[in-house]
Amino acid sequence: MFSLTAGTTAQTTSRRSQRLAGVFLADKHNRLVSQKNKNTPISDVPIPKEGKIVCLKEYGTIKVFQTDSKNGAVEYWATNDLSLEESKITKLVKDGWQIEEYHRGIKQCCGIEKSHVRKARSVISHIFMSVRDFLRLEAYRIRTGISWYEAKYS
User: In the chain, where are the structural domains located?
Assistant: First the structure.
């Protein structure tokens, strides 16, 4: 996955889009896309379930998908792989969410960011032990069927 950054030139992003085939989150609902030579905020463009091919300002031709979360939030996922199908995007979104859950778990339950050391060796040891703890916690969760929080605080 990759994302667009503000301040990049059209030439740079065009070269990047040719080099990278990926999926990125178009997190701004006002990001301008071009349809029939008219720039429109992405939130105003009707996007069917199978996606829509548009031109992203300063980037090039992309395919946009819209996902709706359970709480009503709308996210726009874009790719420069114009042959990508909706089922693949759904899988990528699900995989991305599992990665977010892992990050939340390792931060909240294993204290990976609570290290008060500065030496490289100590930082590496802390990260290693946090990942080790998370793996043990996850194995326990799978074996017993209880959540990370129940295991940690019970």
Answer: 10-84, 109-153
- Name the E strands within the chain: 23-25, 32-35, 38-41, 52-56, 60-68, 74-79
Which helix or strand (DSSP H or E) is residue 124 part of?
Answer: helix 120-144
pTM of the model: 0.58
Token reading at 147: 């959540």
Confidence of residue 11 (pLDDT cuts 50, 70, 90): very low
CA-CA distance, 4 to 128, in Å (whole number)?
A: 32
Strand order of the β-sheet with 32-35 is 23-25, 74-79, 60-68, 52-56, 32-35, 38-41
Query: Using an 8 Å Cβ cutoff, are 88 and 100 in contact?
Result: no
Per-residue CA distances from 109 to 1, 8, 104, 122, 140 (Å): 26, 38, 8, 20, 13
CA distance linking residue 28 with residue 33, whole number of Å: 11
Q: What is the DSSP letter of 9?
A: -
Give the pLDDT confidence of 126-137 residue by residue, as tens digits. Answer: 999 999 999 999
Q: In this structure, which amino acid lies at residue 53? A: I
Please, which residues bridge with residue 54 across strands?
A: 62
Per-residue pLDDT at 53 exceeds 70: yes
